[in-house]
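README: folding subset

This subset contains proteins for which both the sequence and a predicted structure token string are available. Records are stored as plain text. Below is the entry for IS5 family transposase (170 residues), shown exactly as it appears on disk.
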Amino acid sequence: MAAYARQHRGSRPFTGHWRKRGAHAEAFGRSRGGFTSKIHARCDNQGRPLGFVLTGGQVSDYKAVNALLELPAPNPRAMLADRGYDSDSFRQDLLIHGILPVIPSRKGRSTPQNTDWRRYRDRNRIERMFNRLKQMRRIATRYDKTALSFMSFLNIAAARLWIRSFVNVT
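--- output ---
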């Protein structure tokens, strides 16, 4: 004879109160092209990656900033970022920590902030780093279901970039 779970006192159907899983936990988010995820990177002055943070595609850029700044890496003197990271609170946080924000203002901003365009030109190193990362097919189109496995391959790709910077290929 089989014992059923509902025979016992206080038993009731499962209500699903475990930790929530799904697209949000795996850094997937809806965007115009479907499910996407964003890679936020912290780089050194040579454009070599120091760490990554994954967010869903619809998440605002400056929501990942605190996680980027908490990565175990040397404190930067300046933070070069694109317009998606432009907010007054973020600029104030950077200045409190002694980091110079080099972020252009958004187009619709009521009080535009000054930007050091000479320093901002160095941001192309970061964009070239993303270009080199996305030349690897597995990074360009995310085949991994879990954020952990995708982050692992990001770190392997970052290690390849670091090795290339130390090896003389002449």
